[in-house]
Design brief:
Number of helices of chain B: 13
CATH architecture of the largest domain in chain B: 4-Layer Sandwich
CATH class of the largest domain in chain B: Alpha Beta
Strand content of chain A: 25-35%
Distance between the termini of chain A: 60 Å
Order of helices and strands of chain B: HEHEEHHHEEHHEHHEHEEEEEHEEHEHE
Helix content of chain B: 25-40%
Distance between the termini of chain B: 65 Å
Mean pLDDT of chain A: 80
Largest sheet of chain B: 7 strands, mixed
Structural class of chain A: alpha/beta
CATH topology of the largest domain in chain B: Metallo-beta-lactamase, Chain A
Structural class of chain B: alpha/beta
Mean pLDDT of chain B: 87
Low-confidence stretches of chain A: 286-298, 342-356, 361-372, 505-517
Helix content of chain A: 25-40%
Number of domains of chain A: 3
Oligomer: heterodimer
Strand order of the largest sheet of chain B: 8-7-6-5-4-3-16
Largest interface: A-B, 120 and 87 residues
Number of domains of chain B: 2
Radius of gyration of chain B: 24 Å
Number of strands of chain B: 16
Chain lengths: ~600, ~375
């Protein structure tokens, strides 16, 4: 039996084909999700067990706003092959476009306040499965051949006709939501189910260390349902839709489903894969590095740790926040390295944290002055010894991140810049921001502003504070917390990929917010209405003035389908394809004299 | 309705008129081409496992490793969390070839002839050939069940990792003598992980005949190790689900994949007279909520009350598609446990949050290398009932 299959399920379990088939999807999802880099590559954005029952799983997949649910239906054994069947449901986000295609009843359920709570335990609520069901997953397991197969069956469109129409009672009165004999639902079930199937199949190729050796597709005429008070609910042939069943087999042929007739498409190597599947994520299983265990290197992933620059005035609660962040990561098998240069200040209490992190002190004065030399050597030590997922550079409260950022470019071969996170003490912020330019600078350059100790002040303090923070920094994410307590996924996103939001509109674009012009650091916003030319953009970025300390945004190029996330610190920038929908494209430029720089930059990139 | 109107604009706060509830109520997919499930509505099974008078847990060791940084560095250096635990080259299976290049066969060949009696010599060899032998600690607990007639019965849950550390802990708590006197009637393994399982020869040195219960899903290396350690007693593989042990005590096996190529976790449930359910766990990889829900559905217990819990309370590393939830701390409150002794993989910060949330956490003494009083630490005891 191949080692790779043993990684998925222990030999004892493989001896029972039905049990193995039943456990297969969960094992694939769980194993593939253990390593953040791997799971991101395979398309997973979060997995959760339904704690309360029946082996339900809820998952999120790259590119889809909603949550998928997988619920075990039944299991059988034929000729020592185990077969397990699962119901696939898709719970759209309440504001997602797909809500329009589901039935009115489903739409109402999605707008309820307890919707996500119910989704998390959807196996407890039969109405959810009924309203949001989109397809069926089959898992096959044949022990002798170490064979695994997965199939997806779903209608292209799942249509429901409301014979009597649908009348709604809304807060503003009765409303005819669906006219009699018109479509209550016309849901693109196949298209919606495919991303989940792709991620699952890609995980199978990854875990089994081999691409599928068999593909089949069966179809049959589709059905639609109609319901009415007199007739009840019944199925009938639908004119324009098909049921599709796509199957992939690893080491075995995909078993056909006799209910769907002769396959319209079959493929086995060495014949070339049909054109429509050439980009399928499950094909790329020619994994280098045949080690005897699975790891991220087999995917060619060499993750550099992400760098978080943590700033904030003395006593604002940086250490408290950091403690929480480290433990949060440790609970998720993440590892944090901390580099501190707090002179004479009490650092992290290693004993308390159980050394869930590595810490190195750079104590030759202020980190921003001595950065290049000592930081680099501290980093290389810590990286080779611990291979952390994050490096947090905790700066002294007196450090001006403006000086720091321009130095960080030297480290871009070792780290991926992630965020400037600034902690603000709600109690003393007013005074600090008025008195100290460094404090204002810390706020201006932050990607994430954390207002701490909010339990100690009331709205009379908080509201003006929020206004002055927004004035200094219109583009950063702003959060309120007490005791440094905020989940890191809220701040940085699942898989550390957070949607970049356009700056709040309360400030004039192009940065006419010059209230504190001590060192003339300002934020400027550029709207991008049309896609850009990549070469021109890259060239303009390389010529950006050294007065620019930070730039970021969402950019769309002519040569790419997806928008890309742009991150810039002096001397270094990245463009990463966005895996979430971004309606608007924009750039934020932070630096001295940014309005005129932004103006020039915009002219250069938009030709 | 007008074509350009979006449903999202009017669905909030809306209710369907007469007769339309049909869709949700009737179950769409039973009319669709999809297969039907044959799951009946779940009812609580409430299996009677009997009652016991009390349960006392002695924490032999909860410190599985001493520096998390070193452990995580090893795991990452060897390739990550999917790597087979026998390949890391950790003690006792060091082959001298360095991190990530270990193997069970090569490692055990160096020490097999010394197991289970000449452990000091074995440890010298292990120290010379393994990666970070000084970092190994272990998880082990002594569980004493008092039957309704006052008779007391003893069980071990897990045996730790480092031979050296575990022998020291066993002696500190008198486990060595209890084993020699055959006072301990069985050893339960929660799961196959190194820090719970690899210290096995230390227990077998004092009683090679002890009955061992393992959860279904052990890998061939683990099964071979039990033999290679010189075990001569009964080995019982517990199938997924509920398994009665003695009146008032049952184990439950959860079929779940766990990091470092491990599969399946066994936890212990007790029904304490007049008090209610008591749960004892190794790591609780199934998640504390699933653990409590399983008890609720599967077992009948006194007063229908969750009384106590001991062990590592694992936070699911995957509960992350919606970050607004802080499941463990909030949801644990729903079960109303009256005595909580937590340690090991719970996380000190998490334990402190339990305390801050007003949960009845029984604090420890932070002795013998346990880190914080929020943990029921090494050498501490907790009694239920």
């Amino acid at each position: 039996m191949p080692v790779s299959l043993n990684t998925l399920l222990p030999p004892a379990l493989q001896a029972s084909p039905t049990q193995a088939a039943m456990e297969l999807p969960r094992a694939l999802m769980t194993r593939a999700n253990f390593i953040p880099g791997v799971r991101h590559r395979l398309g997973w954005r979060g997995v959760r067990d339904c704690a309360k029952g029946q082996g339900g799983l809820t998952v999120r997949v790259t590119g889809m706003q909603g949550v998928y649910g997988l619920k075990f239906l039944n299991v059988s054994e034929t000729d020592s092959m185990g077969q397990a069947t699962f119901h696939i449901v898709y719970f759209p986000a309440p504001d997602e476009e797909l809500i329009e295609s589901f039935s009115v009843q489903a739409g109402i359920a999605a707008q309820q306040d307890d919707y996500l709570d119910r989704v998390r335990e959807f196996t407890q609520y039969p109405d959810l499965s009924a309203l949001f069901g989109i397809g069926v997953l089959e898992a096959f397991f044949l022990p002798e051949e170490s064979g695994v197969a997965l199939t997806l069956t779903a209608p292209e469109n799942d249509t429901v006709i409301a014979l009597d129409g649908v009348i709604l009672e809304t807060p503003t009165g009765l409303l005819q939501a669906v006219n009699p004999s018109e479509e209550d639902q016309n849901f693109p079930a196949w298209r919606t189910a495919m991303p989940l199937f792709d991620a699952l199949a890609a995980s199978a190729s990854y875990c089994l260390k081999t691409a599928p050796k068999s593909l089949t597709r069966q179809t049959r005429p589709g059905m639609r349902r109609s319901y009415g008070k007199e007739t009840g609910i019944h199925s009938e042939l639908a004119p324009d839709t098909r049921d599709i069943r796509l199957g992939l087999g690893w080491n075995i042929r995909v078993p056909d489903n006799p209910e769907l007739g002769t396959p319209e498409l079959t493929w086995t190597p060495p014949s070339p894969i049909p054109e429509e599947f050439t980009d399928a994520p499950w094909l790329s299983a020619d994994l280098p590095g045949a080690t005897n265990s699975l790891d991220k290197r087999t995917m060619g992933i060499t993750d550099r740790p992400r760098l978080i620059v943590l700033t904030g005035f003395l006593g604002s609660g940086k250490t408290t926040f950091l403690t929480r962040f480290i433990e949060d990561q440790a609970a998720k098998n993440g590892f944090v390295a901390v580099i501190q240069n707090e002179i004479g200040q009490k650092g992290l209490d290693g004993k308390l944290l159980g050394q869930s992190y590595a810490v190195t002190e750079v104590d030759e004065g202020c980190v921003c002055c001595t950065l290049a030399g000592s930081l680099r050597s501290a980093l290389s030590g810590i990286l080779s010894e611990f291979q952390p997922d994050f490096v947090v550079l905790e700066t002294t409260g007196l450090a001006n991140p403006a000086n720091l950022l321009s130095e960080l470019a030297d480290l871009d071969d070792m780290l991926d810049f992630a965020s400037v996170t600034t902690v603000i003490d709600a109690v003393g912020a007013d005074h600090t921001l008025t008195e100290f330019e460094v404090a204002r600078s810390q706020v201006r350059l932050a990607d994430i502003l954390l207002v701490n100790k909010t339990d100690l002040v009331d709205d009379e303090t908080l509201i003006p504070l929020e206004q002055s923070l927004r004035q200094l920094n219109p583009s950063g994410d702003l959060y309120f917390m007490s005791h440094g307590d905020i989940p890191s996924t809220t701040l940085y996103g699942v898989n550390f990929r957070k949607k970049l939001t356009r700056p709040t509109p309360q400030l004039t674009p192009m940065g006419h917010n010059a209230t504190h012009e001590d060192d003339n650091i300002q934020s400027s916003l550029i709207h991008l209405s049309a896609p850009l030319d990549r070469t021109e953009f890259e060239q303009s970025v390389s010529q950006l003035s050294n007065q620019v300390l930070r730039a970021k945004g969402v950019v769309r190029f002519h040569d790419a389908e997806k928008p890309e996330i742009f991150q810039y610190v002096p001397g270094s920038h990245t463009l990463t394809p966005a895996d979430q929908t971004h309606e608007e494209c924009f750039l934020v430029i932070i630096g001295q004299d940014s309005p005129s720089i932004a103006e020039h930059f915009q002219a250069a990139i938009t030709g | 309705m007008s074509d350009n109107m979006k449903r999202r604009d009017f669905l909030k706060g809306a209710a369907t008129g007469v007769g339309v509830g049909l869709l949700g109520a009737m179950g769409l997919y039973s009319y669709s081409p999809m297969r039907e499930g044959y799951f009946p509505e779940t009812e609580r099974k409430m299996t009677d496992i009997g009652t016991c008078r009390s349960v006392k847990v002695t924490n032999i060791s909860e410190t599985s490793w001493f520096e998390n940084g070193v452990l995580m560095g090893d795991i990452k250096g060897a390739g990550g969390l999917l790597v087979n635990q026998y390949d890391y080259n950790w003690p006792p299976f060091g082959n001298g070839k360095g991190l990530g290049k270990g193997s069970y066969d090569e490692g055990i060949a160096k020490i097999k002839h010394l197991l289970p009696n000449r452990l000091e010599e074995a440890w010298d060899i292990i120290e010379a050939n393994s990666v970070h032998p000084e970092n190994a600690g272990g998880y082990a607990a002594l569980v004493e069940v008092e039957e309704m007639d006052g008779n007391k019965r003893k069980f071990l849950l897990d045996v730790g990792w480092s031979y050296k550390w575990c022998d020291e802990c066993f002696k500190r708590e008198g486990i060595d003598k209890m084993l020699e006197n055959k006072e301990i009637e069985a050893l339960f393994f929660s799961h196959e992980h190194f820090d719970h399982f690899w210290g096995l020869p230390v227990a077998l040195k004092y009683d090679p005949e002890i009955t061992i219960y393992i959860p279904e899903g052990f890998y061939p290396e683990g099964l071979q190790y039990i033999k290679d350690c010189g075990h001569t007693g009964k080995l019982i593989t517990v199938k997924s689900g509920l398994n009665k042990v003695i009146p008032g005590m049952a184990s439950y096996v959860f079929a779940i994949p766990i990091i470092c190529r491990v599969y399946g976790e066994q936890s212990l449930y007790f029904n304490v007279a007049d008090k209610g359910l008591v749960s004892v766990t190794g790591c609780c990889h199934q998640g504390i909520i699933r653990f409590a829900e399983t008890a609720y559905n599967e077992i009948k217990y006194e007063n229908d009350k969750c009384h106590g819990i001991y062990g590592g309370l694992h936070i699911s590393p995957f509960d992350d598609w919606d970050p607004k939830y802080d499941d463990l701390v909030i949801s644990l409150g729903d079960y109303g446990f009256e005595r909580i002794g937590c340690n090991h993989c719970t996380g000190v910060l998490c334990a402190k949050k339990f305390i801050a949330a007003g949960y009845p956490v029984v604090e420890g003494t932070a002795k013998f290398r346990s880190k914080d009083k929020a943990y029921l630490g090494n050498g501490d005891t907790i009694t239920f009932g």
